[in-house]
Automatic annotation (TrEMBL):
Organism: Corynespora cassiicola Philippines
GO cellular component term of the entry, any: cytosol
Record CDD domains: RRM1_NGR1_NAM8_like, RRM3_NGR1_NAM8_like
Protein name per the record: RNA-binding domain-containing protein
Keyword vocabulary terms for this entry: Repeat, RNA-binding
Coiled-coil region list: none
Gene3D superfamilies from the UniProt entry: 3.30.70.330
Segments for region (Disordered): 182-201, 311-330
PANTHER family found in the cross-reference section: TRNA SELENOCYSTEINE 1-ASSOCIATED PROTEIN 1-RELATED, TRNA SELENOCYSTEINE 1-ASSOCIATED PROTEIN 1-RELATED-RELATED
Pfam family, one: RRM_1
SUPFAM superfamilies: RNA-binding domain, RBD (SSF54928)
Amino acid sequence: MGPGGAPPEQQSGEGKTTLWMGELEPWIDENFVRSIWYNMGESVNVKMIRDKFSGSNAGYCFVDFASPAAAAKALTLNGQLIPNSNRPFKLNWASGGGLADRSRDDRGPEYSIFVGDLGPEVNEFVLVQLFQNKYASCKSAKIMSDPISGMSRGYGFVRFTSEEDQQKALTEMQGVYCGNRPMRISTATPKNKSSGPMSGPGGMGMQPGVGGPVGPYSMGAPPMGYYGAPQPMNQFTDPNNTTVFVGGLSGYVTEDELRSFFQGFGEITYVKIPPGKGCGFVQFVQRHAAEMAINQMQGYPIGNSRVRLSWGRSQNNSGPAGTPYRPAPPPPVYPSMGMPPQHPYGNFAPMKVGDAPHPSNENGMY
């Protein structure tokens, strides 16, 4: 089947008036789609499908024409460039009933998964076909793109109406090839899942205060060690540390953009990019989410460079700096290191080699 319930090359358009229109750029809305067809002499109704994670369009919509003949004529534009856009029309017959029936369907629950490691040759049409061939409840797919270049960021989201299919896809589709690469699958986490009341551009969760936490941290006293109380373990050994250091960032990468690359691994507490340092910090709610991010995003291209990841320190964390990533607990016992070292990153710092001695070097860590 095709995207959003539109099986390619299979459905007959006899008697139908509704087309699926896909691979829409993020800025396109109902009025733009309506104006496209109005300028071609067609009066249409448009049902834009919204991404529940960002609030922007989900990459496709449904267009209802005045007659089956008008819809069939519009379908002949498939593959031609959309006026005032750099993308071609992606059109197909919509499955099911008209827009009224589809609006009722859209009110049901949706279940999403995160899909990473997508090659540049993979578009939303290819991605959703792969999942719809296996899962009847697969509804749509959205591949995130760079707002400047329009190029794929290499990851996206696939939505289902069945939680059972979503759970099956998490395991059955892990490592399955889409295009030229095996996919990386994990649970998708909504950006606004945390209890922080503020929201930034595109629905990105924002934290109250600079570098401040959200969720349980924002409602009362911060946890021990978050704002300077000494912790008995360092970042490498502390099972409560959830902060990831992201080095090698391009200067034009924003905190919202950095968040978008990591949100698929789990709920994020905050994202911080100290100005002029070429690095950033991503703090997760769960330790395992941070471990997975370090393991799977190491060397991933963000902006015009590949990032390097390691455990980071939270604000004023006075434990000794640590070492490259490896899974934690059970932690070894480290001697007291006295006063914390000073770092040019202020209250944040990556763990640097040599800041703390290792109790042994038998594992080849350096």
